[in-house]
Amino acid sequence: MQAILSHYDRAAAWVSGVALRSLALLLTRIVLAGIFWRSARTKVEEGSWLSISDTTYFLFAEEYAGVPLPSDIAAVTATMSEHVFPILLVFGLFTRLSALALLGMTLVIQIFVYPDAWWSVHALWAALTLILITQGGGRLALDAALVKARGK
Predict the structure, then answer these.
(1) What is the longest distance spanned by two Cα atoms in the chain?
(2) Contact 57/49 with Cβ under 8 angstroms?
(3) How many CB atoms lie within 10 A of CB 63?
(4) Any idea where the domains of the chain sit in the sequence?
């Protein structure tokens, strides 16, 4: 039994190391960014970078009308946020702030748009954001380089 515990302790130490933790945080950033980036791209005119489609404005006025913002402001805010914060996450720049913003968006979507989607979708998004809020972007993030450059 002692030998099994020794092997387990070594394996646990290895998977808890900085390298694997950094890779896990990188994957978490990329997965979360991908979710919101794909949503962002559905909100703009095909072939454009940031020209918000008429369909998006319609959806915010009709289907997402429960959001407590004027629909035109909500459409622009959501579209810009879903473009900016995923890019920041991929680079690991302002990771905690970006994840916090996406958690806020997740909660707005959950509460005001799709209240039945918690267990099927939004719980996973919330978990990913909370990992990044609490852990940061890891060593494979620009945040780590900024911290190092600032001497902290």
Answers:
(1) 66
(2) no
(3) 10
(4) 26-149
